[in-house]
Amino acid sequence: MALESAAANARVLDTALNLAGKWGGDLRALLVEDVDLMRLAAFPFAREVGVATAISRPLQSSVLERTFRAEAARLQQILGRAAATRNIAWKLDVRRGRPLEEAVASGQGADVLVMGSSTTSISIGALTSAKPPREEVVALFDSSESAFRGLDAALALLNTHHDLTLLVPNEPSEVRAGHREQARSWMSQHGVAAQIAGLENSALQGLLAITQRRRIATIIVPFESARLDVAALRRLYMETTCPIILVK
Amino acid sequence: MSGLVPLSPNVLYRRCSPSDLPFETTAEVAETTSIVGQERAIAAVEFGIGIDREGYNLFVLGSPGTGKHTLLREFLERRAAREHQPPDWCYVYNFEQPHKPIALRLPPGQGLKLKTDMAQFVEELRGAIPTAFDSDEYRARVEQIDSEYRERETQAFQEIGQESSKQHIALLRTPAGFSFAPMKGDGVMEPEEFNQLPVSEQEKFGKDIGQFQEKLERAVHQVHRWHAERRERIRELNREMVSYSAGHLVDELKVRYGSEPTVLSYLEAVRNDVVEHAEDFRKPTEAVFNVPGLQAPETVNVRRYEVNLLVAHNEADGAPLVSEDHPIYQNLMGRIEHIAQFGTMVTDFTLIKPGALHLANGGYLLLDVYKLLTQPFSWEGLKRALSSGSIRIESLGQMYSLVSTVSLEPEPIPLNAKVVLFGDRLAYYLLSAYDPEFEKLFKVAVDFEDDIPRNAESTVQFAQSLAAIVRKEKLLPFDRSGIARLIEHCSRLAEDAEKLSMHLQRIVDLMREADYWAQQAQHDEVTEQDVQTAIDNQIRRVDRIRNRAQEAILRDIMLIDTRGEMVGQINGLSVVMLGNYAFAHPTRITATTRLGDGDIVDIHREVALGGAIHSKGVMTLGSFLATRYSRKRPLSLSASLTFEQTYGPVEGDSASLAELCALLSSLADAPIKQSLAVTGSVNQRGQVQAIGGVNEKIEGFFDICRKRELNGEQGVLIPEANVKHLMLRRDVVDAVAAKKFHIFAISNVDEAIELLTGIAAGEPNAAGDVPKGSINYRVAIRLYELAVLRQGFGETQKQPKTRRNRVRSHR
Question: CB-CB: which of B130, B177, B190 is closest to A39?
Fold first, then answer.
């Protein structure tokens, strides 16, 4: 099981630890120092516009380096504590490169890859309800072996505030019907209720559209589907803050 | 020789015949009041309570123990039970001005209901509001709003990103924001490559990036505005949800309190506040910290919806009757308590506590005037409340700027109570004289009699009131001999055989003690004997000083003769008051006379041990002497008078007759019988006037004579006016009956001196001459001789007056 953690996205960490704990897997964490950011910081005109203040300020390499080092130390600490509690074997690597590519590359040998981008965004705040808001665990289901493992992962992650949504890719209707049938069978077998919906676009683009409109807890995608549409995966990776799980 | 005869035994003590009482024992007496003879006071109470006008509060004045409290309580309890209940009062939160809590007036019994209803309302809100917020409807609507803004935000950044990418500029996420960088392919250009670009291209990148940064800044600002907009929409949604949840709860309450406009206004304010503060109901209710001694603030601040029930009345109650024994300002006017929170003192409307005025509002408040006057600010506070007709709770600390804590200004509550002050006459007359507001606020004086006339009718009434006390105190029944003895004792307490003392407290105490002694003697009823035992024991417990004084006389430490004769020496009688116990003992008074210029020196006054009234008595003697014996020539006498062996202050003029007799004895050189003692005051014309303590005085001299053995010559001279006051001990009466002791009633000094010396006083004839050898003759001759002697000395021999004498002569 591999983990890509940009800026120690807490939800990514939590998801990875949950799955590793439930499935008894080892955890290999990867913190990627974004090479594009390092390049940017080397430009004399590099400036950063703060999301909280909207103030433009210089972005310096030395500051960025320090930020990455501090992040790595913090992640090491968090992982150490959490993994010890759950008795999970773990390892943390720090690499410099392009996050998505590095994550996919390092996840080659893993059964499951959990990844998430930096949480930099203007948060509009959680729902102010006393209870946590309901969120969706969204799994792309194409009846492949990976897709079934994805459903098992979804099952492992579901809690009382989650709804499960299974998305069937845009394929010929008979194929799609087969996927639905397989999904229902799995649901019946596991006693799980889920909504099954069909995607209009390609798999990942359809997912992207959904994440912009709905409150998503986790996205689960068969590894093969992701590999086929890297551009869409990049957008998904860039534009969502929830964990993305690639399952082999 | 005087023909005056001693008083007969039957005038020395007025018995109450048991046969005059219309019952055998008090058990037969029907239920009646324990108060008799206070018709004036009762009429005043009825008037004071009946009149419903401003300032007609009552001041009950009279001696302690006269039954003031009992009568007022009995009367007011009966009256209050018949009256309508006053309204309940509550303090509630003022949503517009939180530091000024609102007073709500409710019909009796409704205050508690409102309090309970509001507590229930809050409980229901705690459940209903979170439920509303947890509903699918709410979540869906919030999600709709959130999605809209998420989309806007994403779109805003996407547009910038897409636009920048057309210019080969990448929009990148940084740890704390966004940035732009020149692109090569789908990645950021290496700085070295950038440096190799033509300057113009570099400048273009720089310029473009600058423009995109500005756009990004504008976008971030716009996103912030959207956030504010979103929050407002969420708040509006929250208000809508809460308005529905709370609305029907408030509506139910409004139906219940529809007849109370102030409550309806309050409930409407509650509804608005709940809607405005909906968020408070959605926070977790657990305290977030736990520090000993500190009160954790409730995360759900619902205290403001509580009702502070200040005054509540049960439906069964009548008007309230409140007695405040400790009328400090706060107990009277109410107070605002504070609690410590994070090292500061804070308060709110729930910490407003009622005072006695609140509790008595609509009824009666009983207060002791001395307790009231001795508590700082209480009197002023009470007057302010009565004058303004409202109760305003103010913190003294705030009023005088002594403390600076957060405090409140509760809305004043209208005051409609009768205040009844209890005090003595001194307090009443002092307040009348020195406090201009007093007479405006306490217009009704309820003046209690200290005693009532003793006649057949009042005796029976009084006996019945004693029977009521027996019942109330749950004592053994008193037989009529016991009651008769009590009545006699009441006359003794009144110091008047024709009166009955109304100092009921002392009578009640005596009755309790008689009951005790009857039980000790295993009597089924309290008899005369038990009452006498109680009286004897009361005296026995406090007569140590009396016995010491008598012992000193009997051992000749204090020189008192009860036999023989002596010139210028007489037995006076002094009363000593020790608490409620009074006794008397004889005191030797001596007089010396010599040539002088008319001064009678009161030695006690010279050493500042004589009181003003005593001095007045002595000066009256000088006037008497001059008027009777020296009208046509200067009174050429200098005399000294003293109470021998007294070392404390002497007051009163009851010894002036004795002093005059001693002077006349000295002037006439006529010895006075030491077997007699004298009491009585005298005026300038030689008439003898009444004095106090006549019974104790007679008994005091009798005790000494009895202990030395009565010889049939001993006795006491008393003013004739005091005969009606005689209620002497039985042993004294028995001695008189046996002619072993005598009591003479004197009306003028001539009668007294004749008895004391055995020499005729000497009645002047038509020419004003008195018989030779008489006391008056001898005195006149002596004074004439002194005048001649003085004339012989001449003016040159006359000593100048001392300053003290000059001063005294002008007095």
Answer: B190
pLDDT band of A121, cuts 50, 70, 90:
very low
Catalytic residue among B164, B654, B665, B681: B654
Measured between CA atoms, the residue of chain B closest to residue A124 is B227
Question: How far apart (Å, rounded) are the C-alpha atoms in residues B461 and B477?
Answer: 17
Give the mutation candidate from B131, B144, B178, B199 for the A interface (greatest A CB count, under 10 A): B178
Query: Residue type at B584?
Result: A
DSSP, residue by residue, A138-193? EEE--SSHHHHHHHHHHHHH--TTEEEEEEE-S--HHHHHHHHHHHHHHHHHHT--
**Minimal Cβ distance to A36: which of B177, B178, B188:** B188
Of B799, B563, B808, B535, the C-alpha closest to B676 is: B563
pLDDT given at position B284: 53
pTM here is: 0.68
Contact B175 A134 (CB under 8 A): no
- Cβ of A49 within 8 Å of Cβ of B194? The answer is no
B138: its two tokens: 């709410």
Place of tokens 């009666």: B364
Angstrom distances, CA of residue A130 to CA of A215, B142, B282, B284, B458:
17, 14, 6, 7, 82
* Nearest residue to B786 via CA among B511, B571, B594: B594
Spatial contact of A27 and A17, defined as CB atoms under 8 Å apart = yes
CB–CB of A39 and B188 under 8 A?
Answer: yes
Residue B497 is predicted with a pLDDT of: 94
* Distance separating alpha carbons of residues B752 and B594, to the nearest angstrom: 23
Min Cα distance A248 → chain B (Å) is 27
Query: Nearest-5° angle of CA B5, CA B8, CA B14?
Result: 145
Could you give the 3-state DSSP secondary structure of residue A219?
strand
B200 is catalytic: no
- The answer to whether residues B21 and B484 touch, using CB atoms and an 8 Å cutoff, is yes
Task: Please write the tens of the pLDDT for every residue from A47-78.
Answer: 888 878 888 888 888 888 898 898 889 889 98
**Complex prediction ipTM:** 0.80
Nearest Cα neighbor of B503 from B447, B445, B434, B449 is B449
| pLDDT tens digit sequence for A178-210 | 999 999 999 999 988 888 988 876 667 777 777
pLDDT computed for residue A125 by the predictor: 37
Nearest CA in chain B to A67: B175
Q: Lowest mean pLDDT: which of A100-104, A117-121, B619-623?
A: A117-121
Angular region, B480: left φ>0, alpha ψ -120 to 50, beta rest: alpha
Q: Which residue of B has its CA nearest to A213?
A: B147
Is B697 catalytic? The answer is: yes
- How far apart, in whole angstroms, are the C-alpha atoms of residue B189 and residue B446? 107
Interchain CB distance below 8 Å, B181 and A133: no
**Which tops the pLDDT comparison, A2 or B541?**
B541
Chain B hits for A45, CB-CB cut-off 8 Å, are: 206, 209-210
Tokens, residue A102: 């590095």
Measured distance CA(A77)–CA(A93) in Å, rounded: 13
State the smallest CA–CA distance between residue B373 and chain A in angstroms. Answer: 58
Q: Which residues of chain B have pLDDT under 70?
A: 1-2, 33-34, 282-300, 315-316, 398, 401-406, 794-811
- Average model confidence (pLDDT) for chain A? 81
Which chain A residues are within 8 Å of B241, Cβ to Cβ? none
Predicted pLDDT at B578: 86
